[in-house]
Amino acid sequence: MSVTAICGSRNRNGKTAAALQQFLGGCRSAGAEATEYYLPEQAIERCRQCDPDGWGDCRDKGACIIDDDFDAIVQSIRSAQGVVFATPVYWGDLSESIRAFTDRLRRICAYAGNADTIEGKPAVGICVAGGSGGGWLTCCVSLEKTVTQTGFILQDIFALNKRNLPYKNKALAAAGTWLVSHA
Ligand SMILES: Cc1cc2nc3c(=O)[nH]c(=O)nc-3n(C[C@H](O)[C@H](O)[C@H](O)COP(=O)(O)O)c2cc1C
Description:
Number of domains: 1
Shape: globular
Strand order of the largest sheet: 2-1-3-4-5
Bound molecules: flavin mononucleotide
Order of helices and strands: EHEHHEHHEHEH
Number of strands: 5
CATH topology: Rossmann fold
Distance between the termini: 9 Å
Structural class: alpha/beta
Radius of gyration: 16 Å
CATH superfamily: Flavodoxin domain
CATH architecture: 3-Layer(aba) Sandwich
Strand content: 15-25%
């Protein structure tokens, strides 16, 4: 059993990373291996909207023409039994790096030939509003939309802020264990 973690934070010692580690701790305690990607460390261009109609090879071939780190992460997602998306809340929305990645992932998954490896795969979302604590709801809405449009089955989305973090940590670990046990 393997889990792929997609993190939209640059800070491996930050709040988003800490929440992600709680979740992955639960996964590992249930016997899973985790592969982690901190997207700001990866070369991920934004979508080029290749053709005049806004589509491109993503629609006809289920592949992105951009030669960067995107494809390797997609392969990890394909081979995993579960996926977790974790993002800091920026302006009440996803961080730029996770936006760039999920925008392209959603496109290649619109191709029917890719449905066998991603559609129906369980996923969990984590949104960490580490500043004022505002904007968590709109960030969760963005993440829910992109994850479900991509074809994942969303098990849960966690909205964290400095007030609820201590008690949500236990729930994050439980969710990780649950994902591995039920995937
Ligand atoms: C550009 C930007 C926008 C942000 N917008 C919000 C926000 O809308 N609400 C909030 O609570 N925190 C906001 N923050 C704070 C981040 O959520 C906080 O830095 C993050 O949760 C902790 O970062 P880390 O997990 O990457 O360490 C923002 C931070 C940045 C850099």
